[in-house]
Amino acid sequence: MDMNKLGEQALAASYQLSQASTAQKNQLLSALAAGLISQQSHIIAANQQDILQAQQAGLSEALIDRLLLNSERLQAMSDDVLQLCQLDDPIGEETESKLLENGLRLSKRRVPIGVIGVIYEARPNVTIDIAALALKTGNAAILRGGKETLNSNLALLKVIQQALASTGLPDASIQYIDNPDRSLVTQLLKMDRYVDMIIPRGGAGLHRLCVEQATIPVITGGIGICHLFVEASADLAKSVAVINNAKVQRTSVCNALDTVLVQQDVAAQFLPMLALELNKSSVLFKACPKALSLLQDEAIAVDAAGADDFDQEWLSLTLSVRVVNSFEQAIGHIRQHSSQHSDGILTESLARANEFVNQVNSAAVYVNASTRFTDGSQFGLGAEVAVSTQKLHARGPMGLVELTTYKWIGQGDYLIRG
Question: Taking the model in full, what pTM does it have?
């Protein structure tokens, strides 16, 4: 595979995309959404090949769930793409217009970033999320998915390219690296002549590789070590329901709950209630000594927490539990162990809620809500290209605006600088 040729084609496509009208881009997205439904039998058949290979390779049930595409998930993907059509196009928006004393009128205008390289693992729906967001914002993209989803991603790429063809936009707007050779990833990371931004979506190893080897700006994130803190004033029954949702609804995603912190004042009452509910879903508890003493007599699966268990993104039916002496100790634990993805407090105290929001420096901070809401679709962004946990240039779910940059526009009347 000639990576330089991919880069040249993507750059050329990005120039054409940047001039596409909102109507043309929305027509493209509508065709993409329709294609996901009309071609679903072909997509599902390709996905089943990936599922079978994953099972034969002995991949975990959690990872296989991330790979799976079915009619319900394809419909949800199609709906998300259509939602993007309803959102305002940020391209061309002008902000901060001002007239200087010298007569120069200055404004900022939103423009596409250009060419985005995205390296991701599992979850073939990411292919559609990235393509739809990139195309709506006039960006070209070079994609590299994991080998475990190759058949699914190629089927989805076919739908994307059919939609591009139907609207007269270049095929090279979305390109896919279908060769599993890992050296191609290294090449992509150094294609700063063509690629403007790299977004890795995967484990810590992938993020480290990109940060260490890229000559292109990298947006890191997507690793979720997520916490909920049950503060002493919390409604305990409602807290059980929120934790159950955050942990059990879908375990294999980055916004699923990993650790529960319980204030000592309510631990003896709360932990048996939590264990009773989560045991229905066969959740395994990894408990600190205080929590273990309160849980070991319950008819549940519970182990003593190991040295690294509070630093794990479980992506499975496993939950770390720690009893903390105070609000301050909970904050300290989160600062030490969180990946700054999604963390929340369950409380009836407005003062404690405000303190928590002010002191926890995560991309998404919740009061009395599940961490599962950290999602582009749930935030009304249509979809997301990633969940950024860094502080520059975007944080949290990255939607349309986060895939733009801006240029300064200066307008004068044949103005010269004195």
Answer: 0.87
Measured distance CA(329)–CA(152) in Å, rounded: 45
Q: Are residues 48 and 155 in the same domain?
A: yes
Same domain, residue pair 190 and 335: no
Q: Are residues 175 and 254 in the same domain?
A: no
296 plus 252 within the same structural domain:
yes
Each residue of 152-188: pLDDT tens digit? 999 999 999 999 999 999 999 999 999 989 999 999 9
Q: What DSSP letter does each residue of 71-128 carry, written as one string?
A: HHHHHHHHHHHHHHHHSPP-TT-EEEEEE-TTS-EEEEEEEE--EEEEEE-S-THHHH
d(CA 400, CA 22) in angstroms, rounded, equals 13
141 and 62 belong to one structural domain: yes
Lowest mean pLDDT among 39-43, 94-98, 231-235, 358-362: 94-98
Cβ neighbours, 10 Å, residue 93: 15
Look up tokens 């519970």; give the residue: 302
Q: Is 118 helix (H, G, I), strand (E, B) or coil?
A: strand
**Domain encompassing residue 88:** 3-219+398-411
